[in-house]
């Protein structure tokens, strides 16, 4: 069966390359942008920035706690620092440094976190962080962003430069469809309704937005009209957009490459329960660690693909 | 600012010590021990050594910057900031109270002039100071960045990450001081977690290391800071080992870790204040 997709792609690319290209452009546009990396320049795609702005680039070695502190000091002195390492080492490993020196101290530090979630693949659970969004969204003053493809990641990287305050910018490793426009306007905190629907709303973030686009086509072929909303900013959450959509559809699915505990779904549930209690089904990792495997295998095994979203949508509909 | 004599600086120290004791007594909490021990150092920095502007500006371009890593000795810092004009001296009476800008540990959220980053969770200040110092170098700003750490604090691993980094990049506009009083909460550092040869350790990390043997003698503290400045800008970050006595200035507190985080009672306060002349007027 060929699906009638509302968004299509002609090219795949990793979201981390969107970050790397966005960082280079940000460096050209704004002389205050500096970058730090803890021995993962290639993985974070920061090489082009390093090459063009060697004086504004700081290799920190394998010392993430120090990197966060350095960035806080550079922000104090007026710079806009981006720190770069894997999402695991950008959060859990340095939580206290982020909490005290960045979030509580209101420093204009941008924490760029790659290789988030299961799609890191073969490296396994030590590196597949699935708790980072929860940790970061709990911190006062912190903005949490998880873009969905190369173009959106690049746009988000540029947008956070103009945003005053700490930001957690989460992206990933695998090659992924580029299905959003290159010239999109990225508004922090503003959800993007990608597909109109009336029976059920799918709120998705990160890589799962593409899966939601595929799920919508599957559901439509079965006569179910799904609305797809791209929640690239998990905090601050666009509650207005969420409530408006669920008021219309009456039920929802949240989809993310993260633990159900503490993730986007949790935030949506909090919003719904306070303003408009409605059935909500979670697509996320259910209180377990990941494992080695290919991204596709892992997304299937842990129930994070379009098939899982379709099933969740049907469960939500039954509960209406 | 007119250059102050040693006597004038010592007289400020007496008042700062009174402030510290009265602040912690009023709320029956806070950390008098190392605050008293570092009084000469703070007074020397803010009333003699640093080029700084009490009309506080966060970025501090063109100014020397100070970061306090061992944030629990906030009483001495608050007193010295107030006494050097950053905020009204009367505000010291709000220390650790609800709705105060003078949080138990220094913070920026309440916008207290003079504070650039929160501290209290130990081990983070050297990293922050190093980042700020690198920006000064990048911007050809010939100012100095100072940071103070506790000696127990260097048990934290992050300190050594920052030590390695600052030497690697030759951050030579950075002067770090360790309050080398040999005490921490649970007892002498030698017993809790022996620091062994700190001088050799920092030298091995690539730092220029110097010692201020009499950390509670104003003349020696000033000479030490002058020497540190001379040693700076020669390719290496500078470490100043400041041998201080915890609780200095109060006979029943000096030299003991027991006053790390304990406030004096009414009787003890009276006795302590009796040893410290009121030189600038109590708040």
Descriptive report:
The complex is a heterodimer of chains A (320) and B (283). Chain A is α/β, with parallel strands linked by helices and 320 residues long. Chain A folds into two domains: 12-177, Rossmann fold; 192-318, Rossmann fold (3-Layer(aba) Sandwich), CATH 3.40.50.920. Chain A is built from 13 helices and 14 strands. Chain A has helices at 15-29, 41-44, 47-52, 64-76, 87-90, 95-104, 132-138, 150-161, 208-221, 239-249, 264-275, 295-301, 306-318, and strands at 12-14, 33-37, 57-59, 80-86, 110-114, 143-145, 167-170, 175-177, 192-195, 200-204, 226-230, 233-235, 252-259, 280-285. In chain A, the strands form three sheets. In chain A, strands 3-2-4-5-7-6-12 form a seven-stranded mixed β-sheet, with helices on both faces. A five-stranded mixed β-sheet of chain A has the order 9-11-10-13-14, with helices on both faces. The radius of gyration of chain A is 19 Å and the shape is globular. Chain B has a single domain, classed as Thiamin diphosphate (ThDP)-binding fold, Pyr/PP domains (Rossmann fold, 3-Layer(aba) Sandwich). In chain B, helix 1 crosses helix 4, helix 3 (39-49) crosses helix 9 (218-231) and helix 5 packs parallel to helix 6 (157-168). Chain B has a five-stranded parallel β-sheet, with helices on both faces. Chain B has a two-stranded antiparallel ribbon with strand order 4-5. With 283 residues, chain B is an alpha/beta fold. Chain B has helices at residues 6-27, 32-37, 39-49, 74-83, 125-138, 157-168, 189-192, 198-204, 218-231, 266-273; strands spanning 65-68, 145-150, 174-179, 183-184, 187-188, 208-212, 238-242. Chain A binds chain B through residues 34, 55-56, 58, 60-61, 63, 65-79, 81, 96-97, 99-101, 104-107, and chain B through 58-61, 65, 67, 107-109, 116-121, 123-136, 138-139, 157-158, 161-162, 164-165, 168-169.
